[in-house]
Structures are given as C-alpha cells and as structure tokens.
Amino acid sequence: MTQIDFYILSSNSEDIWLRFICKVVDKAFNSGMRIFLYSSNEFIAERLYKLLWTFSQNSFLPHIYLDASSKHIPEEKIIIGYPSVDGVEDYIISKSIPFDLVINLADQPPKFFNCFDRLIEIVNSSDKNKDFGRKRFSFYKKNGYEINTHKIN
Questions:
Q1: Is there a contact between 6 and 124 (Cβ–Cβ < 8 Å)?
Q2: CA atoms within 13 Å, Cβ hemisphere of 86
C-alpha cells in the first residue's frame, strides 16, 4: 500500500511552498530516488521547473517535463507533469515508470498515485491550499490509507 505523507507548512507564501518542494526533491534525489512532480497547472510547473535549476548553489537537480507523446521512458530521475498534458495519467500507468516518489501539487489526488510506494502532499497555509489539502486527506483516509503528518514551521 502506498505510504502517504502530508507536510503542513505554517506559511501561506507560494514561494516558501515551492522552495520547500525543492528541498524535498533535493533530499529524495540525493537518496537515489526517481521522482514525479505532479503539478496543479502549467504555471506552477513552469515556476518549479525554473526554481529546481536555481534554488541552491550547491545542488544540481536535472529534470524534464513529461512528454506523454514519447514512445520512450525518460531516463531523468526528476520529471514534472501536469493534468493538461494529454494523457499524462494514462502514460504514467501504461509505461509502468518506476518512480520511487510522487509529489502531488495538484488540487486532486492523481488517479495513478496507488501505483507507487510513496506519495507526498505539501500543503501551505493559504485558505485555498488548506481546503484542497483537507479534501485530499479525507479522500486517502476514506480509502483506507494510513497518513503521516509533518508540521513544518
């Protein structure tokens, strides 16, 4: 069963939220994990794409956007995708890409989340983000998943 962790940030700043995501990605990448970042939209995906290159002078986090039209499984260990990419969910499932970690930044749980060992949800304290986070938390709980919660100040 998928391990689910919720990180609850005390800040409502989108910039702090994105930088925390980068820290989680950096730690996972340096542990040898393959990571899929499932974004809520193209704008957030683009900001994250740029920030992953520059957030730390001491880190190099090679990453790409998922191309669902590709016939090949990408070799990169960090991949960013979002729901408006045609068929991204079906592509993930059909290619059986061996991700170690999915970080969900979308408003809804990804339909493929249970294909992987670990899912991380990162929720900041903005009203909108908290509301969607509560809905995702309830969805996972209702479906029998054990959830670990981490409060980050």
A1: no
A2: 2
